[in-house]
Amino acid sequence: MPRMFNFIYSESVQTEITPTGQKPIIIGPMMNFKPAFIPGNFSFAVTFSISGVTFNQDHKIQYLFFAPGENQPLIDSGEILVNVQISSDQERLPEYARGIQINMDFRNIIFRKEGDYESEIMFNGDSLGRFPIPVYGIEVI
After folding, report:
1. pLDDT tens digits for 5-37?
2. Which InterPro entries does the annotation name (predicted)?
3. What is the pLDDT of residues 75-130, one digit of tens each?
């Protein structure tokens, strides 16, 4: 059964090439967003892992981001079709410990009000959870 293994908000995610392959580097993990102004633009990234994924099968992943008190998402990635191939380093793991890691980057998102925003991760049409992030401007216009 798929489940969220971790979820991180950050400034960005970069890819580093190493002798063993590509490695994601999370830059500036964040526990809140502090845009210069509200309303105003702000950029961020999310990194999350889903465990218990069936390999060599198509799956649909969708990212939604909601403003406080809103039912319509501020960000909707749409359904992203992924077919995850098992890597040699995951073959020995029990199925519940196998998974995928997803990094998404969002630039210049308009934040119109302060409060607790939420990310929601959908996997094959089912919600794997909501993850809040407080957003408060350094200045409010």
Report:
1. 999 999 999 989 988 788 899 999 999 999 999
2. DUF6941 (IPR054221)
3. 999 999 998 887 777 778 887 888 889 999 999 999 999 999 999 999 999 999 99
Q: What is the Cα 12 distance to its own chain's centre?
A: 11
HEC profile for the chain? CCEEEEEEEEEEEEEEEECCEEEEEEEEEECCECCCEECEEEEEEEEEEEECCCCCCEEEEEEEEECCCCCCCCEECCCEEEECCCCCCCCCCCHHHCEEEEEEEEEEEEECCCEEEEEEEEECCEEEEEEEEEECCCEEC
Sign of the four-CA dihedral 46, 47, 49, 53: positive
CATH 2.60.40.1930 for the 3-140 domain, yes or no:
yes
Question: CA-CA distance, 80 to 61, in Å (whole number)?
Answer: 5
Sign of the torsion angle spanned by Cα atoms 102, 106, 112, 113: positive
Residue 74 one-letter amino acid? L
Q: Where are the domains of the chain?
A: 3-140
pTM score above 0.85: yes
